[in-house]
Amino acid sequence: MKKVVVRFAPSPTGFLHIGGLRTALFNWLWARKNKGKFILRIEDTDQGRLVEGAVDNIKEALQWYGLDFDEGPILQSERLELYKKYADELLEKGSAYQCFCSAERLAEVRKVQEVNKQATKYDGLCRSLSKEDVTQKIKAGDSHVLRLKVPQDGSTSFDDLVYGKITVANANIDDQVLLKSDGWPTYHLANVVDDHDMAVTHVIRAEEWLPSTPKHIILYQMMDWPLPVFSHLPMVLGPDKTKLSKRHGAVAALEYKKLGYLPEAVLNFIALLGWNPKIEKEIFSIKELISEFDLSKVNKASAIFNIEKLDWMNGQYIKNLELDQLLNMSKNFLEIKKEDKLFFSKVVRLHQDRLKKIKEIVEIANHYLVASYKYDPKILVPKSGSPEETIIILGLIITKLKTVDQKDFDQDDRLKNIFEEFIQEKELTNKSVLWPLRVAITGLEKSPGVFEMMSALGKQKALQHLEEGLKKLQKG
Ligand code: GLU
Q1: Is there an atom of ligand 1 within 6 Å of 11 CB?
Q2: Tally of CA atoms within 13 A in the half-sphere of 209 that contains its CB
Q3: Whose CA is nearest to atom 2 of ligand 1?
Q4: What is the distance in A from the centroid of ligand 1 to the CA of 245?
Q5: 107: part of which helix (H) or strand (E)?
Q6: Do 243 and 237 meet the contact criterion of CB atoms below 8 Å apart?
Q7: Could you report the per-residue pLDDT of 207-221, keeping only the tens digit for each?
C-alpha cells in the first residue's frame, strides 16, 4: 500500500480557529493511524489577505495541541516557479487559455446572468481568440489571466469519502482562473499542483471546498495525474445551528489555553465534531483516538459545537489528573506564596472533582487565601432555621471545637465522629449544625465536605472562620 500522506493547508488570513483545528486534527489522526506523513502547508498565494502573525499562531497552536508535523511549514509563496511551470504546460496542451477580459466586462456578464437567473460564470469569450490575437495583445502589454479550459460537455464525477459520489455537469463549471494578472497562482492551481507534488494521498478538508473539487478533478485529469482520496468534513455550527461564532464560545484555538482547558480534552471534544465512533464512549485518550479514528465514520450532517459538553469533558480530564500535575498547570495562572502552598494544595484537591477549567483555581486561591472570607451572613442560616438559633448553635460549636485537639483535625473521619456525638448529645438536628458549620468553614454556599475542609484548615484557622461567621451574623 502507498504511504499515506496528508496535509493541513491553512491560508494565513487569520488565527487558527476551532474549525481549522478540527481539520488539522483529522489529518493528523489519519497520518498517525496509518503511520503516514503529516505536512503543514501554508497557502499564502493571496498576498492581499495575509495577516501578520498568522503563521506563528498556527504553528504555536499545533504545538500546544501536540499535532506535530513531519514536514513544513512549506510556504506556497516560495514555490511560484513550480506553479508557473505547470501553468505553462497546461497552456501548451490547450487545457488553459489566456483571458483578457476587463473587470468591467466580467461584472457586466455576471449581471446579465443574474438577471436571467443563470449560474454565474465566465462566458468563455476569450476561448476562441486566435494565437495571433493573443500574441498581439500580450505584445501590447494587455493585462490577462490564465483560465482552465473546462470541457463544454459531459460531466465530472468523484467519490467523496464523506459525501459519496458527486457529479457535476461540466456546463456548470466555471473556467477557473489559474494564474492571476500579476502572475501569482490562484488557490486552485497551487493547491492541486502541491497535492500532486507532495504525493498527497488523502485530501481532508472543510466542506466549504466541496464545490471547488470538480474543478480540481478536471485539473488532475488534464495533467494526467492520479487522484487523491477526497474527504470533506461537515460544517461546525453552534447549538442554534448558525455558523460558529464567539457567541457559542471561543473560536480561536489558542484561546482555550488561556481559559484553562487541557489540550487533550479539547482534542477529544473536537474529534467528536463530525466523527462518530459508533460505540458508547466519549472519553478517548490521544492514543485511543489514533487507533479508533476512521475517516469512513465521518458524518455529513453538520457538527454541533456545544461548549457545555466541552466543559464537562475538560472536567473529566481534570478529575483524572494527579494533584501535582494540576498544581503545576495552575502555575500558568497564579503564583502561590511558599507558606500557603500546603494548605492551597489541600484545598485544590478538595475542589478537583468540581473544576471545569484549570483557571478556576484562581477563584479558589482568591477565595481561600485571604485573612477572612467575604460572604452574605444570611447564607449561614439553614432554610429551616432562624438567625437567632444559628447564633446559639455557632456559639456551641465554637465552645466544643476549642476542646478538640489539633491532632483530631488531621483526620476528617475523627472530626465527623466528634460532631455526630455532639449533635446527639445536644439533641440538635444534623442540618441546624452542619449547615452553618460548613458555610462558616468554607465561606461558600456550595462547597466540598466540611470535615475535609476543617482538616485542611487546622484548628486555629477553623476557629477563626467560625468566630468571624458568628460575628457577621450577630451584626446582621
Ligand atoms: N487554504 C485552504 C483553507 O485555508 C485549504 C483548503 C484545502 O485544504 O484544500 O481552507
Answers
A1: yes
A2: 21
A3: 10
A4: 20
A5: helix 103-115
A6: yes
A7: 999 999 999 999 999
DSSP labels, 127-166: GG--HHHHHHHHHTT---EEEE---SSSEEEEEETTTEEE
Q: What is the mean pLDDT of the chain?
A: 96
Q: Contact, 409 vs 462, CB < 8 A?
A: yes
Report CA(376)–ligand 1 centroid distance (Å).
Answer: 54
Nearest to 372, CA basis, from 251, 461, 451: 461
Residue 203 grid cell: 485530501
Q: pLDDT tens across 413-445, in order? A: 999 999 999 999 999 999 999 999 999 999 999
CA 454 to chain centroid, in Å, comes to 39
| Same domain, residue pair 400 and 355 | no
Active site residues: 246
Those residues whose C-beta lies under 8 Å from the C-beta of residue 425, and which sit 6 or more positions away, are none
Is the CB–ligand 1 distance for residue 43 below 6 Å?
A: yes
Nearest to 215 by CA among 181, 175, 251: 175
Write out the three cell numbers for 341.
502552598
Looking at the CA of residue 195, tell me the nearest atom of ligand 1: 9
Number of domains in the chain: 4
In this structure, the answer to whether residues 272 and 289 fall within a common structural domain is yes
Q: Tell me the CATH number at 207.
A: 3.40.50.620
Grid cell at residue 313: 469533558
Closest atom of ligand 1 relative to the 10 alpha carbon: 4
Are both 202 and 127 inside the same structural domain?
yes
Q: Tell me: do 255 and 187 sit in the same domain.
A: no
Ligand 1 pocket, residue 209 CB under 6 Å: yes
Integer Cα distance of 49 and 394 in angstroms: 67
Nine cell digits for residue 456: 485542611
Cell numbers describing residue 172:
456548470
Q: At what angle do helices 412-426 and 430-442 cross, to 10 degrees?
A: 140
Band the pLDDT of 1: cuts 50, 70, 90.
confident
- Which residue reads 442560616 in cell numbers? 381
Domain check: are 264 and 227 in the same one? no
Kindly state if the Cβ of 343 falls inside 6 Å of ligand 1: no
Does residue 253 form part of some domain?
Answer: yes
Q: Which residues contact 43 (CB under 8 A, 6 or more apart)?
A: 9, 10, 11, 12, 76, 187, 190, 191
- Integer Cα distance of 173 and 188 in angstroms: 13
Question: Cα(235) to centroid of ligand 1, in Å?
Answer: 14
Domain that holds residue 256: 246-321
- Does residue 87 carry a pLDDT above 90? yes
Dist. CA 7–CA 180, nearest whole Å: 25
Nearest-angstrom CA–CA distance, 58 and 356: 26
